[in-house]
Design a protein that fits this description.
InterPro entries: Bact_OuterMem_StrucFunc (IPR050330), Gly-zipper (IPR039567), OMP_bac (IPR006664), OmpA-like (IPR006665), OmpA-like_sf (IPR036737). This is OmpA family protein. Keywords: Cell outer membrane, Membrane. Pfam families: Gly-zipper_Omp, OmpA. This protein has about 220 residues and is α+β, with helices and mostly antiparallel strands. The protein has two domains: about 70 residues; about 130 residues, 60s Ribosomal Protein L30, Chain: A. It is built from seven helices and five strands, in the order H-H-H-E-E-H-E-H-E-H-E-H. A hairpin with a 2-residue loop joins strand 1 and strand 2. It is globular. The two termini are about 30 Å apart.
Length: about 220
């Protein structure tokens, strides 16, 4: 009797998970949805001969984790693809579940010397970026400001903060939820390139964006 109740609960949980995930992933490829279905059906079949409490919990946790992990990974892949298409000059990279985007003077987000106001070209690039962020609301966004080493280091720290805030504020004005954003600023203290050349300093004057799945999606 106890085993029958467990199996009934397993059916309910796993099928509910499959329905929620599959219907949420409107843009998934058929093969991806098929993999979810196949994995869930296989897990259900295995649950019919499961007899141990630990195995039961492992089954549910593993199946839920696999389905949700596939969903998150697919959504993040889609965002990377759209960023690459909409902003081809921007440096973008996905590492595990995180997306790293670097905006600098060579790819459309440019600040005048010792200024933090966004100019027209910067707004055009960030407008495209904001549209993508709005389309995928299930993420958190960290914006980090950096400068080269020209000028006072304390002033550069303040400047990097104001530039990161300017990018964040513009994205919020375009419609992105303000609660998704976190700001960090490093001034000249985390250079990616040498500050001994004009090209290196240009690369160090940058705003980096890190996109991660939010807690609701991950849990």
């Amino acid at each position: 009797m106890m085993k029958s109740q467990k199996n009934n609960h397993t059916w309910i949980y796993l099928l509910a998970t499959l329905i929620i995930v599959a219907t949420s992933c409107k843009s998934l490829q058929k093969a991806e949805v098929g993999a979810m279905v196949g994995g869930t059906v296989g897990a259900i079949g295995g649950s019919l001969i499961d007899t141990g409490d630990n195995d039961y919990g492992t089954l549910l946790g593993g199946t839920l984790g696999t389905a949700l992990g596939g969903y998150i990974g697919s959504k993040m892949d889609q965002q990377v693809k759209q960023i690459e298409e909409e902003l081809p000059s921007v440096a973008v990279e996905k590492v595990e579940e995180k997306i790293y985007v670097v905006f600098n003077e060579s790819n459309g987000v440019y600040f005048d010397s010792n200024k933090y106001d966004l100019n027209i070209s910067s707004k055009e690039a960030l407008q495209k970026f904001s549209n993508i962020l709005i389309e995928y609301p299930e993420t958190k966004i960290l914006i980090a400001g950096h400068t080269d080493n020209v000028g006072n280091d304390e002033a550069n720290l303040t400047l990097s903060k104001k530039r990161a805030e300017a990018v964040r504020d513009f994205l919020i004005i375009q419609g992105a939820d303000k609660d998704r954003f976190t700001i960090k600023y490093f001034g000249e203290y985390e250079p990616k390139f040498t500050n001994d050349t004009p090209e290196g300093r240009e690369g160090n004057r940058r705003v980096e964006v890190t996109i991660t799945p939010n807690a609701v999606v991950k849990n």
